[in-house]
């Protein structure tokens, strides 16, 4: 099974306060089995932004955020950034009536790269389901 992890799923693995034990268990399984992991470059910016927000709110130290960010770069991810992905994201966001297309980029990657989108974000999960995109809600 190929997987497109979103930022919430990545952060749940790195930050116990952000996610669940289930996310950590699933990550271990995915990596042990050598599953194909594909994500948009947006993933790195989103994770960095959330880490910074936690540092700003004093939930993490700068060093802890930096360690988590370094873990992200160790994940064997292939990046999907074809023009078609962004065109599909624009279409999906429009069809869903969304003002922004960030979540739609993950949906487009999952759709066009034939991956299952893994997320802890219920809104993203429901949007993907509505568009017929394979998704798994990690709870």
Name the descriptors.
three-stranded parallel beta sheet; 58% helix; two-stranded parallel ribbon; globular; 7 helices; single chain; 139 residues; Rossmann fold; mainly alpha
Please characterize this protein's 3D structure.
The chain is mainly alpha-helical. The chain is built from 7 helices and 5 strands; from the N terminus they run βααβααβααβαβ. The chain has one domain (3-137): 5'-nuclease (Rossmann fold). The strands form 2 sheets. Strands 1-4-5 form a 3-stranded parallel β-sheet. It has a two-stranded parallel sheet with strand order 2-3. The longest helix is centred in the middle third of the chain and has 15 residues, at 42-56. The chain is globular and about 40 Å long. The two termini are 19 Å apart.
Present the secondary structure layout:
Layout: E1 3-5, H1 7-14, H2 21-33, E2 37-39, H3 42-56, H4 62-72, E3 77-79, H5 83-96, H6 102-112, E4 116-119, H7 122-130, E5 135-137
Parallel strand pairs: 1-4, 2-3, 4-5
Helix pairs in contact: 1-2, 1-3, 3-4, 5-6
């Amino acid at each position: 099974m190929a997987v497109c992890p979103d930022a919430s799923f990545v952060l749940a693995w790195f930050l116990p306060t952000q996610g669940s034990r289930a996310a950590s268990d699933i990550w271990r399984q995915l990596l042990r089995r050598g599953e194909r992991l594909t994500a948009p470059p947006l993933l790195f910016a989103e994770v960095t932004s959330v880490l910074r927000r936690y540092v700003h709110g004093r939930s993490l130290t700068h060093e802890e955020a930096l360690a988590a960010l370094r873990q992200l770069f160790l994940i064997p991810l292939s990046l999907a950034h074809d023009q078609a992905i962004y065109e599909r994201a624009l279409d999906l966001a429009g069809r869903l009536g969304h003002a922004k297309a960030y979540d739609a980029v993950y949906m487009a990657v999952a759709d066009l790269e034939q991956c299952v989108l893994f997320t802890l974000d219920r809104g993203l999960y429901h949007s993907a389901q509505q568009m017929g995109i394979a998704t798994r809600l990690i709870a």
